[in-house]
Amino acid sequence: MRRADRLFQIIQILRRHRQPVTADAIARELETSKRSVYRDIATLMAQRVPIRGEAGVGYVLEGGHDMPPLMLTADEIEAAVLGAQLVATRGDAGLVRAAQDLVAKIAAAVPERLRPIVLEPASLAPSHRTLPVDQIDVGIIRHAIHNARKLAMGYRDEQGRATQRVVWPIGLGYLDSVRMLIAWCELRQDFRHFRTDRIAAIDLLEARFPERPAALRAKWRKTLPEMPHKS
């Protein structure tokens, strides 16, 4: 790996982590020596890249550092295209359009030699399977999650029984055959999963969650059954 590429990759590794990353960990990922990592870190600091930390403790990239967003490797391009393909088969209408626009933007921006990776990728998403039609705009749910806003909704269970709910939406699960809203339900006082195609009506409320969505997601994960370990 050229040194210029290694410097770029060090910044990428630090951007990927919120906690300090040790020189050992960086060296293992880049398949180089710790001494080279120390020299590269010193070079980046001399170039005013805002890296904080020290040998033996770890390094973090402080906020405010910006890099050209489309300095992508071939593998990164393929990962982005594969992700966009998956979204195009499972996302709501807004995300499908966004995925198509993303692929078009990447194809227009990358160098000519990398364009075949976008237009003729080696990795292919599973074939499209039609999901049940939603009666509501799922984009409203995504907006509520991003802004920690409560939702009022009418919901019908698998027996067709109707209930009115106020929920704190924390995530959308894109499963093989359905989309699921993950939320804290004020009616049940517990986490619940709602199929989006069974939501009859939805209203974005002004009220916000009393907790951060990330904290609620952590609590929800603790309620999930553990998968048995296979030996």
Polypeptide structure, described:
This protein is α+β, with helices and mostly antiparallel strands and 231 residues long. It folds into three domains: 3-61, Winged helix-like DNA-binding domain superfamily/Winged helix DNA-binding domain (Arc Repressor Mutant, subunit A), CATH 1.10.10; 74-119, no CATH class; 138-223, Roll (SH3 type barrels). The chain has helices at residues 3-16, 23-30, 34-46, 74-90, 93-109, 115-119, 138-146, 213-223, and strands at residues 51-54, 58-61, 149-156, 162-174, 179-185, 190-195, 199-208. The strands form two sheets. Strands 6-5-4-3-7 form a five-stranded antiparallel beta sheet. Strands 1-2 form a two-stranded antiparallel sheet. The longest helix is centred in the middle third of the chain and has 17 residues, at 74-90. The two termini are 38 Å apart.
Quick description:
With 231 residues, the chain is α+β, with helices and mostly antiparallel strands. 41% of the residues lie in helices and 23% in strands. The protein has helices spanning 3-16, 23-30, 34-46, 74-90, 93-109, 115-119, 138-146, 213-223; strands spanning 51-54, 58-61, 149-156, 162-174, 179-185, 190-195, 199-208.
- Assign the CATH class of the largest domain: Mainly Beta
Q: Return the average pLDDT rounded to an integer.
A: 85
Helix content: 40-55%
Structural class: alpha+beta
Number of domains: 3
Low-confidence stretches: 227-231
Largest sheet features:
5 strands, antiparallel
CATH names the topology of the largest domain as SH3 type barrels
Instruction: Give me the count of strands.
Output: 7
Radius of gyration over C-alpha positions, nearest whole angstrom:
22 Å
